[in-house]
Amino acid sequence: MNKAMISASLVTALSTALVIAAAPAEAGMKDKEKCYGVALKGKNDCKAGAGTSCAGTSVRDHQGNAWSLVPKGTCEQTVSQTSPTGFGQLKEFEEKNS
Questions:
Q1: Do 11 and 55 share a structural domain?
Q2: Model-level pTM?
Q3: 8 A C-beta contact, residue 72 and residue 32
Q4: Which of 6, 5, 73 has the alpha carbon at shortest distance from 33?
Q5: Cα-based torsion angle of the residue sequence 49, 54, 55, 57 in order, rounded to the nearest 10 degrees
Q6: How many beta carbons lie within 10 A of that of residue 84, not counting itself?
Q7: Are 40 and 55 in the same domain?
Q8: What pLDDT is attached to residue 61?
Q9: Are both 47 and 77 inside the same structural domain?
Q10: Residue 36: CB partners within 8 Å, gap ≥ 6?
Q11: Does one domain contain both 24 and 63?
């Protein structure tokens, strides 16, 4: 085999491995939903407002613009001390005064 053929085979093998590795993660996401206002300080899965990078960046418990992945259907049943309804929300919200 020449170098070009070996390189092409290697790229194909690596691409296939990446696709196979990503499939279980995507399948698990189908049973989850983003829930705002339930993450504890520094324990959010992602999004915590302007100037933050992502996971682990929430600066306080139950921050209204930080979310965690929870089992689908449980978000709006999970207690949130800052939510206007007292429970997690499917969209970010302005926190009520405690």
A1: no
A2: 0.66
A3: yes
A4: 73
A5: -50
A6: 13
A7: yes
A8: 95
A9: yes
A10: 64, 65, 66, 67, 83, 88, 89, 90, 91, 92, 93
A11: no
Domain count, the chain: 2
Q: Range of 51's domain?
A: 32-98
Q: Which residue has the tokens 């929870």?
A: 70
The verdict on 3 and 20 lying in the same domain is yes
- Residue 51: pLDDT band with limits 50, 70, 90: low
For residues 53 and 38, which has the higher predicted lDDT (pLDDT)? 38
**What CA–CA distance (Å, rounded) separates 80 from 83?**
5
Residue pair 79/86 in contact (Cβ under 8 Å)? The answer is yes
Please give the structure tokens belonging to residue 91.
Answer: 């969209």
Please state, in angstroms and rounded to a whole number, the distance separating the CA atoms of residues 68 and 46.
7
